[in-house]
Amino acid sequence: MQWVKGLGLGLGAAALLALGIILGHFAIPQNSPSISATQDLDLEILETVMGQLDASRIRENLRELSREPHLASSSRDEALVQLLLQRWTDPASGLDSAEAFEYEVLLSFPSQEQPNSVDVVGSAGDVLYSCRRSEENLTGEQGGPDVVPPYAAYAPPGTPQAVNAAKYGVAGVLVYTDPGDINDGLSLPNETFPNSWYLPPSGVERGSYYEYFGDPLTPYLPANPSSFRLDLTNVSGFPPIPTQPIGFQDAKVLLCNLNGSLAPAAWQGALGCDYRLGPGFHPEGDFPEDSQVNVSVHNHLQLRNSSNVLGIIRGAVEPDRYVLYGNHRDSWVHGAVDPSSGTAVLLELSRILGTLLKKGTWRPRRSIMFASWGAEEFGLIGSTEFTEEFFSKLQERTVAYLNVDISVFANATLRVQGTPPVQSVIFSAAKEIRSPGPGDLSIYDNWIRYFNRSSPVYGLVPSLGSLGAGSDYAPFIHFLGISSMDIAYTYDRSKTSARIYPTYHTAFDTFDYVDKFVDPGFSSHQAVARTAGSVILRLSDSLFLPLNVSDYSDTLRSFLQAAQQDLGALLEQHSISLEPLVTAVEKFEAAAAALGRYMSTLQKGSPDPLQVRMLNDQLMLLERTFLNPRAFPEERYYSHVLWAPRTGSTATFPGLANACSRAGDTSPGSEAWAEVQRQLSIVVVALEGAAATLRPVADL
Amino acid sequence: MQWVKGLGLGLGAAALLALGIILGHFAIPQNSPSISATQDLDLEILETVMGQLDASRIRENLRELSREPHLASSSRDEALVQLLLQRWTDPASGLDSAEAFEYEVLLSFPSQEQPNSVDVVGSAGDVLYSCRRSEENLTGEQGGPDVVPPYAAYAPPGTPQAVNAAKYGVAGVLVYTDPGDINDGLSLPNETFPNSWYLPPSGVERGSYYEYFGDPLTPYLPANPSSFRLDLTNVSGFPPIPTQPIGFQDAKVLLCNLNGSLAPAAWQGALGCDYRLGPGFHPEGDFPEDSQVNVSVHNHLQLRNSSNVLGIIRGAVEPDRYVLYGNHRDSWVHGAVDPSSGTAVLLELSRILGTLLKKGTWRPRRSIMFASWGAEEFGLIGSTEFTEEFFSKLQERTVAYLNVDISVFANATLRVQGTPPVQSVIFSAAKEIRSPGPGDLSIYDNWIRYFNRSSPVYGLVPSLGSLGAGSDYAPFIHFLGISSMDIAYTYDRSKTSARIYPTYHTAFDTFDYVDKFVDPGFSSHQAVARTAGSVILRLSDSLFLPLNVSDYSDTLRSFLQAAQQDLGALLEQHSISLEPLVTAVEKFEAAAAALGRYMSTLQKGSPDPLQVRMLNDQLMLLERTFLNPRAFPEERYYSHVLWAPRTGSTATFPGLANACSRAGDTSPGSEAWAEVQRQLSIVVVALEGAAATLRPVADL
After folding, report:
1. Are B393 and A580 inside 8 Å of each other by CB?
2. Could you say which of A98, A610, A693 has the minimum Cβ distance to residue B613?
3. Which residues of B are catalytic?
4. CA distance A123 to A289
5. Per-residue model confidence (pLDDT) at position B33
6. Backbone torsions φ then ψ of A532, nearest 5 degrees
7. Residue B534 has pLDDT above 50, yes or no
């Protein structure tokens, strides 16, 4: 017995120890799993995240987020701030920390006491027709005090009488969305929501009419309570005249009764009549010839508190490198598509990553920062104030910014806008995820069927769009020079010519709309969540940053060729040579290619963590080298010499193209031609500086 | 025999092996000694460098550098470019690589055919007196074609007649250096050079009269041949009227004969007469009353090639971190003091470090970059073009810039100008080096006797001056936001009140002048070389960057107190509160202190190289967070919100102080008062951004 007991004891101890080890490894939460400084992306973790992203959870997120209207700074918007904070501080699925950052920003609202109105009045002042002041309550969600009536934010108040005033110039503007542009021509109630995804006749697109972005009173400064604010008389960028949006139902009444000559063919639409230019109403129409249209706009400006919510997962190895992923939170009304379809995805991804974090099974190499921006609809205000407040820190440390605003416009294909260095990481992600549609295609293989281009390097690849200023990525790319991207699922253009999903910015953009028409089953939402998740993990966990700077060579070469073709002859006439630009592009290409070779060598060996960090810094900071805050003094925030707004249609260097277009036929020694030369030098210096950043770091 | 032989063989093999090891270690050049990623500053290497810096070698360098005049872009200047390249590529004592970078810049020269002249002429046009057109050839070095005649660079050509023109305003300017300001009142030939260090009566101070710095035709762009150049009519910053410098010998003749009322007491000097204001000559003086002074200036502008020479020692561990050490190469004439005393030191330090490098006994942790700038005398042109060309790369990677222009003004004490983070490394170096004077004081203990202040943190310490735009550090600190310093040995102010060393910018600034009067024995040169060498090694080799960011707290607190005392009441009258600034300073102090504690903790443990790198990035990039390229749109290159030029005498936040001074008595709602509020917000945001950079890197 004794020896058996002894053996039993021995075996028991070993078994207990083993059990303890197993328990310790798998069951006890470890908030800091041991991660080596050369640990690369863990494909099992990636697989886990891909598998766990849950369409039904995204659907539930969306239902909650879009349950009530949540206009920027409204009480429901504030409630959603709390919801985000609660999710991101959840003990089981939250992040390391989360915080709301409040700004005091200038917003614009219609008056509750005096509704904006558009009326046709007779010569005696009698009201002959009134446009709707709110949308028709078709599903029970379009009524109530929280549905902001249609208005043009930042349009000034005023009461222009358009017909009379036309003699002296435009005194007011009415805006509507034509069924030809938004509804594939359909306009009848039985053809539109809630019977289809098309915009009902009473639907009105709200929007901001402010020309710039960011808080209008605090350009280049965060809108903290103590910050300097412009006097209203010094604010530029607001529309000069009263403006009001109306539905196509009302537009039809006004437009189909107009007198005057026929509008150009391109201006005709699907209202079912000939569009005429006025002035005045047609004598045989519904209104007496001497009727007028009275527009009353009673919008007012107001300083309001609006918050960003930031949440962070601390990086285990390089906590000072940030992978940023954000979307705005505020909507015009319920905002189920815009922006809640994006926030629903954001919350599901943060839940999955937060759960892995809290369980102790994973911590990223770099920090991941989640952001819920405020007051985007008024002009990217929350994100812009954030970049103004943390300008230096973000420029020093941010690897890339991923924006998912509207995550699903439609469920045909992935659509990506981004700067060239993000192409490779998007491709890597998209190749590994199944497309939600029929068949067994990857997202990548499906994508390439809808959007593609022929790359001199890779052959046929999906084509990325470039980043304008349509969502919160704008301050990141244009003001901070951070490699950015915006992803969504979108249309099959062979099936619709709608400018955007039809209920955009109306009271009909609701949960049921998404659930029934946009993405039943939420598989496109899930596909976007997987793509975003894969991109975020690749950026946060890869040992070598998956930013392929060589892909800028492709863009630069095509910009150069476009400049040579479109501007070369004109420039030559003015003795301006593109040779320095050719040389600069060549230097960039050579430096990028050499860096790629160096990276391959490092990857084959056993690189030490500092070597990797130095190389990654080159990759991360490349985009920054294209910034020049003095390049476009008249363009607020736009400092990126490759992606500033272009006036022409040719995809080329914007400063050069714009300056050429302005110089035009002015005389050879003009200031305008000097500006062309200055812009050419600016882009040459930027490219040479970019090449210098990519060359071996101890080169002179 | 056999066993003996065997033993002998065994012993012999061991001895050979040991010998081999010893040879391998000490004799075979290893260009890359094995350096661990956590290697700290090697005090033995520091000791070696301190011991090897050789005063007589510095003297020989100076003799060679100042042998001939080397005006910017002259053939001797070009020859010195070759000399530097040769030294820095020497197989036994050179650097890893060296290269000349040529720019095409706009310089200004007097005409060889038509010398500038200043004459007194009678009413009939007869010349009554002519000022000297060149300095007296006292030592055989002041003659010859390479000695540029005295002139005011960038002053426009013209022939004003000063007396007549005075009725309508100033038409021309004559500049001279009064013996009261430069010579402690002495002016006789036997009291001046070559009999003493004082300026001889014929000596004339040359200089640039361009208001900004950098190449005048290419602001913000490197002056490469293809770069856009301003049309001359669009260049601002040149003096509007003809200007010519003269010696005090000639000034005496003009000034002591002037008529009119007595000049203010502060304008009187040591020429031995009462200074009067004119107009016209005194009836009892040397010239008829109706005589006039004719000034003829024939300066011309010319595009010339000017080179920087750059040399680099590649860092072993962090080659992408640069410690920059530079001085200009060009002089007005022989330039023994200015700038060759600095270059002589630079060459000796690069020789010592190069020798250690080539022997394989040392390689720095970070890269060290040596620079010899061109065309500094015309307005810091070479260094400015360099910062324009490599803006991004330098901002990303430069740890600090050390400037040693004139290394020895006089041999009493060290003098340092710099930003607060460099104070600690200078102090560390200065405490360990013996002062060259009598007694056994350290440079630090000697220094504190001449310049000191009471620090709330440290008690009595040597005081650092702040950086203006007097030498090539200007573009580094003001345009790039790189922590910078300028060091030299200088005067005992109880012994001289000379504005600067007396032969400054004259043909009398020669090797013999230095050898006999400024620093016989070159021990002050050696002291500066040791200080510079110690600072460079500490910056390049310390594991933790020796930049004490907490020392900015001291400066900010004193700026804040000055603002409260000097501007507080005025601001309060305009309802402008300094509270946000107080809060921002407090946040900075707290973040800097916490970072200091974190660093101490790391230092006590065994930090991994990435942790050190992340902390060092915070230290390196702090200075960058004070840059705001939009803060002072009218000040070219000045973007550092703490060190931009101040118009007032109070050491405080320059933007705020200048704006207050401009707003002055304007009405409360004026644009000028709005600018005060804007400037206040700019500095608050900069300080908050700085604090954000210092806080733990994964904090929100």
Report:
1. no
2. A610
3. 376
4. 9
5. 72
6. -60, -45
7. yes
DSSP character string of A143-197: -STTSPPP-EETPPPB--BHHHHGGGS---EEE---HHHHSTT--SGGGSTTSSS
Cα separation values, A23 from A27, A35, A356, A487, B489, Å? 5, 19, 17, 40, 68
Classify residue B668 by its DSSP letter: T
Predicted ipTM? 0.93
φ, ψ dihedrals at B532, nearest 5°: -60, -45
Per CB-CB distance under 8 Å, the chain A contacts of B696 are 319
pLDDT at B32: 62
* pLDDT tens, residue by residue, A383-400: 999 999 999 999 999 999
Location of each CATH 3.40.630.10 domain in chain A: 43-108+302-541
Give Cα A112 distance to the centre of its chain.
31
Q: Show the DSSP H helices in A405-492 as ranges.
A: 423-431, 443-450, 473-474
Architecture of domain A43-108+302-541: 3-Layer(aba) Sandwich (3.40)
Q: Catalytic residue positions of A?
A: 376
Q: Which residues in chain A have Cβ-Cβ distances shorter than 8 Å to B577? A: 226
For the domain A551-694, what is the CATH superfamily, name and number? Transferrin receptor-like, dimerisation domain (1.20.930.40)
Nearest residue on chain A to B317, alpha-carbon basis: A610
Is the separation of the CB atoms in A690 and A592 below 8 Å?
no
Surface-to-core class of residue B465, CB atoms within 10 Å of its CB (0-12 exposed, 13-18 middle, 19+ buried): exposed
A576 vs B contacts (CB less than 8 Å): none
In chain B, which segments carry CATH 1.20.930.40?
551-694
The pLDDT value recorded for residue A259 is 95
Query: Residue A121 corresponds to which tokens in the numbers above?
Result: 């009045």
Helices A551-573 and A654-663 sit at what angle, rounded to 10 degrees? Answer: 20
Distance of residue B367 Cα from the nearest chain A Cα, in angstroms: 7
Chain B residues touching residue A682 (CB < 8 angstroms):
221
Among chain B residues, the shortest Cα distance to A393 is held by: B693
Minimal C-alpha gap between A695 and chain B (Å): 10
DSSP structure class, residue B461:
E
- Judge: B393–A99 Cβ closer than 8 Å, yes or no: no
Residues in chain A: 700
Separation in Å, CA of A261 to nearest CA in chain B:
49
Provide DSSP, A40-108: ---HHHHHHHHHH--HHHHHHHHHHHTSS---TTSHHHHHHHHHHHHHHT-TTT--SEEEEEEEEEEEE
pLDDT at A163: 52
Best mutation site among A314, A320, A397 for testing chain B: the one with the most B CBs within 10 Å?
A: A320
Question: How many A-B residue pairs are in contact by the CB < 8 A criterion?
Answer: 162
Contact A221 B688 (CB under 8 A): no
Chain A closest CA to B58's CA: distance in Å?
26
The candidate with the shortest Cα–Cα distance to A416, out of A318, A266, A534, is: A534
Residue of A nearest to B222 (CA): A685
Q: Write down the CATH number for the domain with range B43-106+302-424+462-541.
A: 3.40.630.10
| Per-residue pLDDT at B170 exceeds 90 | no
Q: What is the pLDDT of residue A167?
A: 54
Task: List Cβ neighbours of A450 (8 Å cut-off, separation of 6 or more).
Answer: A412, A413, A415, A492, A493
Chain B, nearest residue to A397 by Cα: B697
- Tell the residue number behind the tokens 């990435």, with chain if given: B610
Indicate the SS3 state at residue A36.
Answer: coil
Phi, psi (rounded to 5 degrees) for B52: -90, -15
Q: How confident is the model at residue B438 (pLDDT cuts 50, 70, 90)?
A: confident
Q: Which two tokens stand for residue B446?
A: 């000697």
> Residue A272 carries which DSSP code?
S
Question: Which residues of chain A lie closer than 8 angstroms to B391, CB-CB?
Answer: 689
